[in-house]
User: Fold this.
Amino acid sequence: MKEQAMAQVKIRRTSADGSLTNHYDCYEVPYESRNTVMDVLQYIYANIDGTLAHRCACNGAYCNVCLVRCNGKNINPCRTFMSKEMVIEPVPGHKVIRDLVVSFVSSEAGKK
Assistant:
């Protein structure tokens, strides 16, 4: 019987009050080349750590609400295949609400 290949995933965690900034949690998940980064995030949330905050909406890269930074590149996790080693962080340039969830509201919104 063939042993299941595993992927190593590091995720930057941040609490709502900002107390866990620059803290990374490491996870080992089953590697399937057909799985997306979103599949990985959902797997971690459902099977390993139910406290992981991330967004998922259209699952088709139409809305960009799930946007994250993976291995140094901004990606749509719903349309990007997983790799055997991943570092996943909130997309830079936006206020982090918690973990991978950021506010896409412009700081200029509402100003006149």
Q: What stands out?
A: The helical segments are 37-48. The chain has one domain: 6-102. The CA atoms of residues 94 and 105 lie 8 Å apart.
